[in-house]
Design a protein that fits this description.
Layout: H1 2-15, H2 40-50, H3 113-116, H4 118-122, H5 131-139, H6 142-152, H7 158-170, H8 178-184, H9 193-202, H10 210-213, E1 224-225, H11 239-242, E2 251-252, H12 274-281, H13 305-316, H14 321-325
Antiparallel strand pairs: 1-2
């Protein structure tokens, strides 16, 4: 009996083995809820769920169908098709450094990474699966029953499902770009001349104002801004959540990390290249009444062809190729 108790205790401890995040130099402590601490078993379960088509109505797509590792866990299509090729209306956001974010989706509709899982799972334009059906499918899988028991000491249920996928997503950390080596790791040789000029432009508030919104380790200040993309917005953005007129056309400031991998750009994927993005921000915009004060209005911003090229080269220096190729993130 003592041996059985000992073995059971050892098994429990192995299942509770912490998953140790590799925090990049310069990053603050990650935001991990006390009721969902990272363990090896939880991350393993979450990764399996992330790539499993069992969580879609007709078992045709998975989370990874719209969030592909080669595109920094985003999609290279304007908008992603859900089950039966039903199209959504927003561009797929990259899933990186989510442990340093406090709101999710373009409109910030949820503040918890765990609850973020619910929308794509049940939305008719995405996986279109009833939550009770998802749990039923998992309960009828011997493999999943074992994995849930190891990870959360319970049978499959909605709470553990959300927590597991969130656990895997929190491991998707990107912080080894040229910029990181130059700025955080103090390698003065990391940038070439053009990238350095672009860096100085980007952080120069007096001219282009990029850093006013794209700041911090994620190159996002986690606010919601209207960047003057349209005079009238078919998608009202943050106003869908708040109902406030002053939130019309406001969307979450996205990360710029791995930006060259995440085209097309904007909430609706309407800008196809970085050149189009720079041209948008160097123009007067549409003059929307909610347009951010950081978006130049009235006349064109005087950016030379050299300035634009340097900014684009700096943005490309935010690419983390090690992240894109990391086998730990792949199926």
């Amino acid at each position: 009996m003592a041996v059985l108790v000992f073995l059971a205790s050892m098994t429990f401890e192995l299942n509770r083995k912490p998953y140790v995040l590799k925090i990049p130099v310069g990053f603050p402590a990650p935001l991990i809820p006390a009721d969902n601490e990272l363990t090896v078993a939880r991350v393993k379960l979450g990764k399996k769920l992330f790539y499993d088509k069992i969580l879609s109505f007709d078992t045709s797509i998975s989370c990874s169908s719209c969030h592909m590792p080669e595109f920094s866990f985003s999609d290279n299509r304007t908008v992603s098709p859900g089950v039966k090729q039903v199209m959504g209306d927003r561009n797929s956001m990259p899933l990186i450094n989510l442990a340093w974010s406090n709101s999710f989706f373009w409109d910030g509709g949820v503040s918890s990474l765990e609850m973020q899982v619910l929308k794509p799972l049940t939305s008719h334009t995405e996986m279109n699966l009833l939550l009770r059906e998802a749990v039923y499918r998992l309960k009828t899988s011997k493999d999943y029953v074992k994995l849930f028991e190891k990870a959360y000491q319970c049978e499959p249920n909605p709470n553990a499902l959300f927590k597991a996928i969130a656990s895997f997503e929190r491991t998707l950390i990107s912080g080894n770009s040229k910029f990181d080596r130059y700025f955080y790791q103090k390698d003065s040789t990391a940038f070439n001349a053009s990238e350095k000029r672009g860096y100085l432009l980007f952080f120069g508030n007096d001219k282009v104002h990029c850093v006013s919104c794209h700041s911090g380790v994620n190159f996002s200040n986690n606010t919601f801004q209207n960047n003057g993309l349209y005079a009238e917005y078919k998608d009202e953005g943050r106003a869908r959540i708040t109902g406030h007129k002053n939130d019309i056309g406001k969307f979450k400031v996205p990360t710029l990390r791995n930006i060259a991998y995440t085209a097309p750009y904007m909430h609706d994927g309407s800008l196809k290249t970085l050149e189009e993005v720079i041209n948008h921000y160097s123009s007067a915009g549409t003059g929307h009444f909610n347009a951010s004060l950081h978006v130049h209005t009235g006349s064109q911003l005087e950016l030379t062809a050299q300035d634009k090229n340097d900014l684009i080269n700096f943005l490309k220096a935010l690419n983390d190729d090690d992240f894109i190729r990391n086998p730990a993130y792949r199926q």
